Amino acid sequence: MGTVFRCRKSVLRGEVKIPPSKSHTIRAIAVASLAAGDSVVLNPLDSADTRSAVRVYRGLGAEISMGPDGWYVRGREGEPKVPEEVLDVGNSGTTLMFALGTCALLREGAAVLTGDAQTRNRPADPLLSSLNDLGAIAFSTRGNGRAPFVVQGRIRGGTTSLEAHSSQYLSSLLLSVPLGDGDAIIRVPLLNEEPYVWMTLDWMRRQGIRWEQQGMEEFRIPGGQSYRSFHRRMPGDFSSATFFLAAGALEGNDIVCSGLDLDDPQGDKAVIEYLRCMGARVEVEEDRVRVAAADLQGVDLDLNHTPDALPMMAVLACFARGKTRLGNVPQARIKETDRISVMCQELRKMGARIRELPDGLLVEESQLEGARLQGHGDHRVVMALTVAGLAAPGETEIDTAEAVAITFPQFSHCLEQLGADLKTMEE
Q1: Which of 81, 115, 317, 334 is deepest in the core (most CB within 10 A)?
Q2: Rounded distance, CA 264 to CA 267, Å?
Q3: CATH topology of domain 22-217
Q4: Catalytic residue among 308, 338, 359, 378
Q5: What is the pLDDT, as a whole number, of residue 206?
Q6: pTM, two decimal places
Q7: Has 399 been annotated as catalytic?
């Protein structure tokens, strides 16, 4: 059984409360699980991905209680426990990469990590190589750089060079290396999605972790450090807000997104500037961003820092005059799906004039019409196509809509509150 979204063209107006950040919540679980003492994660995102993180870090010995006011974590003081069972991360690629680093802190025994079919197709070769360089033992059971993985500790220090096609590789090392036994040098000749690393460094700074860096190209990190317990509130998720911010710019719409922290290092807050560049009417005040419809113009956008924005920006580009180029985002091909290929394929079914580039998409103004679409089990693809269906004449159906629970379980409900003609069907 799966879920289908069925939608028709609608005017969307009103305010939506944006859910908490997935990226922050998973970092909070990882840090709290390795800290000494009891931590409280306030306003966590409760979704399939964050529950995967809770399950995995419980498997590594953390005591985690999920209460209505927050999640309470008793950490392992830098000493994860050998798991009794295989660690299954489900669809959470972030949890998989972070847990690889955590498991490299084991003092004895080994851990086995796997995930669902999409996750088992996500490459991690560069991270595995770096963990091995730094003293751990990490390998793919199929020898293809993809899960299932076996990991043994322990990080002893040393020097490694990491091509971070995904920022998650570098964040994993940065979170685990300070707790290793020796000093480490991480050289980074390639880094995509840089703002996600800024977020990780911010967590380390708040924890009192010491390091030196030369730009984002080299990090020198002393070993033998430790994490401490914390109480911290999770901010709203700009990646989830992207769908509503962009929807606000479409004909007849006027949407306010609340619960956002413009001072937070999340990269996807750049979507606000993308919308301004395209001509949308944008107002920002404190924790609220209002976007109202306007005549949109095609632009050339570098999405390297914001790969999660690609699906929704591809939809928005169909309604902009002229051409829009979404470029420098090759890592979008190694997310839950190849989002460059998938968005091109599905939007063409609606009549979009769109073509793939090696590192993105080229989109021309298009007359979209309702169609039967595949969501490919990718939460961000499903959400972007739903917004497209609400802006196009006719009826649109998107399958595998259950995938939105990965990051935004209330997505359809929030759209309905704004006036969306949206029905959720079981098939």
Answers
A1: 317
A2: 9
A3: UDP-n-acetylglucosamine1-carboxyvinyl-transferase; Chain (3.65.10)
A4: 308
A5: 97
A6: 0.94
A7: no
